[in-house]
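Let's inspect one such protein example.
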Amino acid sequence: MMKVGRAAVLAAALGACALSCRVAESDVRRWETTERGPFKLVAVITHDKYSWELRTEAALSLVRMPPRGGQRKGIGFLIDKYKAEDETEKDGALVQLPEAARREIVARMAPELLKQLGTAPPARTEDGRMPADPSVPYKDATFAMLIHEPPLVSDEAIRTQLKDALTAWAQTGFEDRIENGSQQYGLEQMMRYLGAPSVRQLPALINENAHRVDRICALIADIGEDQTKLKASEALVALSKLYHSDEWLQAQTKIVKEHNAKNNQKADDNQVAGQVAKIQDRRVTEEVFPAMKKIGGRPAVEYLFGYAGDGKMLENRRKLALAALEGRVDKNNPQDLQRIFEIAKNNETPDSVRDVAFNRLGEFPKEQIVPKLYTLFDPPKWKVRWVAASLVLKTQGTKGVPEFMNHLPRTASTKMGMTEPLSYGGLIAKMEPGPGDTKPRAAITPYLGAKDLGPKLTALGFFWEGKKADRGAVQPFENDSSPLPKCEKEDECSWQCDVPKASNPKETEPKELKTVGEFVKFCLIPSMEK
């Protein structure tokens, strides 16, 4: 009996070996490159007749399997879905497994995944090309396992280790890896999944050698913690100061001269300075300011305020500094309001800069800005009043029309451009009255007969390019001899419009206007007949 029992045990062992020992690790490796290899690897993973070591090796083979037809298909066979040999769609091998078996294989895969995720990207070649990053397949597979529903990594300790490893992977060689197009899951997608911890180290990458400051700051702005955003804001300020430093300008001058010499380009010192200025302008206006707008933060906001108000800075840069403050001013901080207002009211501020300053003022509550805007209705430059007054009207309803009219110029001695009252009238016409408020036409009509020039012209401007049926409202003023404002040529506020030539009515010529009646007769009424 004893002999028979031993024979039976031996036979059983030999049978088991016939099933499992026929597949060795060398076979698994070879199947990574054969046509039917992926299907065989799935079979090894999903059958419990094979050892855990072999099943784990088969899973890792699918991870590192070379691209087929230009695509890496291993993740489909292992985690997502794939087409079987009979063309039916099947779940990936890990999904097919019972929970206990999947948990075992994932636990055995983890050390190799962690090892590969710990490698830095290969250095770029001398000509700047980026070699293949062998860790990418492991990153993609790990990420796919983590985001899969239902979860494929059920052990919380392993799940935490893998997430931490992905976070470190993302922050190591960030600029190369964010540009790596071989990834099945983009780096940004992965970092957004990982959340705030994945961007904590990114502010340290904000320097003059960074090529993707925009991408860095977009990620920090979207998912970073307040402390990370603050560090990024500080880093951007430091970077902008660097770009304006004598040391940086001297270094760039040397680089430009060497480049010119290497490429046999002749340039004198002024031309070289121009080349450096273009580099500086691109770095500041296309890189730093847009990044500051994304990040915000008090350091960046304070810096942009100072830059926009500095008359020594270039006009276009000052304008873009104010543009970068959009949505970043503190509406509860009176100092923010005052600093923008000082830029807007300064007579030395270029018009293009002032226009953006008024846009920023428009972000504050109307009860804060309207009183300040009314103080700008009698400036040396009529355009300042024009922009300020237009902003007042955009924040008011018809209930505010009387106060508005009371602040307009009273006589022709105050410079006033023709476009000014026309635009005021147009803005009043577009007002939406609140419950119980006067409608725009009813609010404007009493001012047609006003003694003061500004309100009268604004009321007439209400009908500019209006309906023919409304001509009767303005025709009584065709003979109004009230003088129009006079301006010097440099004031750009002349009153004129095109009228038919006496010699050929089909052609037009500009006519200088002297009185309100001439404006009504030659400009306003014809505009209502078009």
Summary: The CA atoms of residues 32 and 94 lie 17 Å apart. The first helix runs from residue 2 to 20. Confidence is low (pLDDT under 50) at residues 1-21.
